[in-house]
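On clarity, I found the account of how folds are encoded harder to follow than it need be. Since the whole study asks how a given chain folds, the encoding of that fold should be made plain. For illustration, here is how one protein appears when written out as sequence plus structure tokens:
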Amino acid sequence: MAVRLVEGGRTVHELPLAEGDGMCAGYHGWAAGDFGDAPQR
């Protein structure tokens, strides 16, 4: 699993998400419908 920044059809940067625990924590929250609090303005 990775995130890619693409500009003009060319990959500018790619960040692997499998390294570390961020992907796992984020995915489980998303699957449970927990998208966090709305930002305060």
